[in-house]
Amino acid sequence: MRILFVMRHSGYVRNFESTLRMLCDRGHRVHVAFQNKARHTLLDPVDTPRLLAGQYSNFSYGDIPARTDGWGLLGRELRLGLDYLRYLTPAYEDAPKLRERATRAVSPALLARVDRGFAKSPFGRRLLGAWLRALERSIPRAPEIDAFMAKRRPDVLAVTPLIEPGSPQSEFVRSARALGVRTAFCVASWDNLTNKGLIHGPIDLVTVWNEPMKREAIGLHGIRADRVVVTGAAAFDHWFDWQPSSSRETFCARVGLPSDRPYFLYLCSSKFVAPEEVPFVRRWIHAMRQAPSATFRDAGILIRPHPQNADQWRQADLGGLDPVAVWPKAGAVPVDQNSRSDYFDSMFHCAGVVGVNTTAQIETAILGRPVFTVLAPEFRETQEGTLHFRHLQQVNGGLLHVARDFQEHLAQLGEALGATRESDDRCRRFVEAFVRPYGMDVPATPRLVEALEALGREPAVRPPRDPIWAPIARRRLAGRISALEREARTVAEYRATRLALREAKRRAKDADRRARAADRAREEAEHRARREVSDETKRLRTLPALVAGFSRLGDVDRRSFLRATFDSFPASSYIELHGATKPRKLDYDGADIFMRVMTDAEEFRLRACGKEPFTVDWIHQRVCAGDVLYDIGANVGAYSLVAAKKPGGAARVFAFEPSYTTVATLCANIVLNDAASLVTPVPVALSDTTGMTVLGLRDLEPGAARHSLGTHSSEDGPIRYDQPVMTFRLDDLIDMCRLPSANHIKLDVDGGELAVLEGASRALSSPALRSVLVEVATPLSGPVTRVLEGHGLRLESKVALTTKTGEQAVWYGLFVRDAAGDAAVR
Amino acid sequence: MAGAVQVLSGGPCEIYTELVETDAADAHARDATAFLQKLGYRLVQVTEHRAPGTFPRVFDGLFVRS
Predict the structure, then answer these.
(1) Cβ(A230)–Cβ(A211) below 8 Å
(2) To which H or E segment does residue B36 belong?
(3) Which residue from A689, A704, B36, B66 lies 20 to 30 Å from A673 (Cα-Cα)?
(4) CB-based contact (8 Å) between A256 and chain B?
């Protein structure tokens, strides 16, 4: 079967997505044609038609031509008149806002007739209605729409919403019926048959959700009872299968509400129903916070803005009413997986729902949550002044707990929370009557699809003939047609001019704004620079004033101060500054090794090779390419880098250094010499225990030495800073980090040597270890020698450096494993 | 966190962690949440860094275990 489904815009697809899918699944060819060419990005953000076309080869979509000629304009004018007359009937006596909306669309001539002419009485209005209908029937069909229908040649034409004011979709129905095509009006929502326009002209099928809506189709639109089929609300079928996507705790945390108490969900209404809803919601929350019951005083409030009426919530002030969350602040149409889950979860986890008059209240009923409303004076015309609101009040006992004021509302809230079963029953009764009239387990989509299929099996429609008065009427209407066309041209020109003017104004304003912003930014930058420089340079008059001023500044001001200070220096000062940190060369002849030098101590390290030539000799003679060297007490890495860069092949070095300032320079030097693959900095202390301790820094300068581990004093001078450090037994660290066994160890830890050796028994006993070079204070040379000899290492050579007074100060010992072991390992 | 199961299971603890979802299909944050929930933690607070619905989504989650 070929089904052509005409929709006003792509936003209607979400109401019929399950129906379209099932039609495709059953093998029908489905084409959806939209009156509005542009996709409705708010109601159809995920482009559902495109997704369906990607999933079903028998689904397609596109546009349908719109009628723009004079006859089309006249037809619309006549139908608007009929729609308006509807709101003057007794059924709409208490619906002033609906009537006022219809008044805005109707032609002034008709309005004058109704207000002052013969149509002032009910009888006169009936006569006028008959006259308008007769004229409307005499209008010729649109050739472009006839051509479209002939090309598509559907078995069934379905339309929605059909009842929009002036009903342009009536043209599609007429053209289809002229070709013998059966036509169906699939009602999209529960307010469509009472809130909008009329069904104009004959139609073969009207599908509605429930019996109350069937009565509306018959009573308000004059449709024959056998042409109306109750299907249930296909748009809600998926609600019965969903499960929450998150726990209550997770959801509350996500929206910013406490999870240790219930929250109430306020569902906002459309712009038509509640154009200014924030003041009402503020009053409602205030009433909650004044309630005698702590349940309401402390309850969480979640406000969910209507997606088409969310602007008012962007700047809404709800201060002092916490805990309150407005989420999602910009509103969201629940069409994709995430937004649907959010929407569902917000209802699922709440204690109750409050709102003015919105479809979301029906969705809440499906979940069995109690639904409340307060009859607010400002919404009187869109609550009790609309017919569809009565469904929520009355169908099968009614869904809503309706209160006349906040006091009654709070009492209802308290009762409903205490009587969950009653609330459940109320919701179930309503849903059974309004959403799933064939039973809670019977989905609506198959019913709707079957209704369309049954229509497709009916014999072709006998094309209606033009009424006999049509030729005369058309001649009489020619003048009106010309006037409408002139009016339309004028309106179009006016709109085009207004649009062009608006666009030109917008562009000019944008350009002006950009230029002003640029000027302002430039001026501000210049002013800031001038002010900063002038203010700060005043303080730079004397060095003591500078130091005193600086110490009084906070962090942010200090940075501004320094920036302003440097800004006041000549540009060449930057060159000098960079020159001061330019890397300098280590005194090593075997390769170019560069070191960062910012301090006296680092400068001293540049002469490391001249200071310890025997260390360089040891590295050259003993440390072979690929050997692993543990440089314990690596300082800024001079010897580590010699081992990594020496001629004859690089060693693999692990450089142990705990002082954080020195580690920074060690890392910088590794970077400077491109040695990251050869030298691994290990920023921890080694000792005889694994744990936490402090490293007493004698000097904070990078490159400084003679620090003291685990004590707060030093024989070399006072401790400037106790740095917390992690300390490891070397054996533990090797196990934990799976370090490769050392072939060589250089040990220079300024007093902690015995503790390091104590924690390195296995490393020292390893046959892989071939040599150890130790620097110790002379008094420790004996104990250190004994420990190392205990691990099978022999003192091969030693060097003793003396002080200027001739005292022995430092002792270097080279220990090796004997040649047999050495050879065995290698 | 997978390397810290003993620490995370050891006693009452709060974890404040920044999580990132590069897009709607990114399961990283959900996996991390599920991992902690298995260890008995509850997500009690979420602080979004950016407007909801925008990706990458960056948020701080406070997980507690009593």
Answers:
(1) yes
(2) helix B28-38
(3) A704
(4) yes
- Among A298-312, A398-412, A511-525, A729-743, the minimum mean pLDDT is found in A511-525
The answer to whether B25 faces chain A, any CB pair under 8 Å, is: no
Q: Name which of B32, A348, A337 is nearest B46 in CA terms.
A: B32
Condensed to tens digits (0 to 9), the pLDDT of residues A435-484 reads 999 999 999 999 999 999 999 999 988 888 889 989 999 998 888 888 88
The pLDDT of residue A534 is 57
What pLDDT is stored for residue A199 in this prediction? 95
pLDDT band at residue A424 using 50, 70 and 90 as cut-offs: confident
Provide the sign of the torsion angle of the four alpha carbons A182, A187, A193, A197, taken in this order: negative
- Note whether A194 and A41 are within 8 A (CB): no
Q: Following DSSP, what letter does each residue of A475-503 receive, concatenated?
A: HHHHHHHHHHHHHHHHHHHHHHHHHHHHH
Interface contact flag, B46 A249, Cβ < 8 Å: no
- Cα distance between the two ends of chain A: 85
Chain A interface disruption, residue of B14, B46, B63, most A CBs within 10 A: B46
Taking CB atoms within 8 Å and a gap of at least 24, the contacts of A45-48 are A45/A333, A45/A335, A45/A336, A46/A335, A46/A336, A47/A10, A48/A10, A48/A13, A48/A14, A48/A17, A48/A335
Class of domain A592-825 as given by CATH: alpha beta
**Residues 356-415, chain A: which have Cβ within 8 Å of B?**
none
Least confident of A277-286, A388-397, A542-551, A763-772: A542-551
Alpha helix ranges (H) inside A159-269:
169-178, 192-195, 211-221, 248-255
Tell me the nearest-neighbour CA distance from A45 into chain B, angstroms: 12
Class in CATH terms, A1-66+153-232+444-467: alpha beta
Q: What is the pLDDT of residues A95-109, one digit of tens each?
A: 888 888 888 888 887
Q: Which of A259, A327, A330 sits opposite B44 (nearest CB)?
A: A259
List of chain B residues whose C-beta atoms are within 8 Å of the C-beta of residue A332: 53
* Domains A1-66+153-232+444-467 and A592-825 agree in fold: yes
Per-residue pLDDT, averaged over A62-68, amounts to 90
Per mean pLDDT, which of A22-31, A38-47, A389-398, A809-818 is the most reliable?
A22-31
Pick from A249, A330, A338: which is nearest to B42 by CB? A249
What's the rounded Cα separation, in Å, for the pair A480 and A77?
11
Please report, rounded to a whole number, the percentage of residues in chain A having pLDDT higher than 90.
57
| Alpha-carbon span A183 to B35, nearest angstrom | 55
| B29 at A interface, C-beta within 8 A | no
Q: What strands, in cross-sheet order, belong to the sheet with A324-326? A: A324-326, A300-304, A263-267, A352-355, A371-374, A400-403
Arithmetic mean of pLDDT over chain A: 88
Substitution target from A249, A345, A737 for chain B, most B beta carbons within 10 A: A249
Dump pLDDT digits (tens) for A123-136: 888 889 999 999 99
First to last CA, chain B: 18
Domain ranges of chain A: 1-66+153-232+444-467, 242-434, 592-825
Q: Give yes or no for residue A569 having a pLDDT over 70.
A: no
Minimum distance, in Å, between the CA of residue B7 and any CA atom of chain A: 17
Q: Does B42 touch chain A (CB under 8 A)?
A: yes
Q: Which residues contact A551 (CB under 8 A, 6 or more apart)?
A: none
Q: What's the rounded Cα separation, in Å, for the pair A445 and A240? A: 12
Question: Looking at the domain A242-434, which fold is it?
Answer: Rossmann fold (3.40.50)
* Residue A8 Cα to chain centre, angstroms: 30
A822 pLDDT above the threshold of 50: no
Determine the pLDDT at residue A565: 66
CA angle A789, A794, A796 (to 5 degrees): 140
Query: B51 vs A330: CB contact, 8 Å cut-off?
Result: yes
